[in-house]
Design goal:
By secondary structure, this protein is mainly alpha-helical. It is built from 1 helix and no strands. The N and C termini lie far apart (71 Å).
Length: 50
């Protein structure tokens, strides 16, 4: 009984991984953009000149 549970859990993990990898490859063709927003950030920095 416990062996069947572990086998089912293992199969679900493998299917989930395959689905995640497939979505990562097919997602951009379906209109999903995984790129972070590109914005320039400028912050002033004060350095001690000792």
């Amino acid at each position: 009984m416990l062996g069947k549970l572990f086998k089912l859990l293992f199969i679900l993990v493998i299917l989930g991984f395959i689905g995640l990898v497939g979505f990562a490859y097919v997602g951009p063709f379906m209109g999903v953009d995984f790129a972070p927003p590109k914005t320039e950030i400028r912050m002033p920095v004060t350095l001690d000149g000792s």
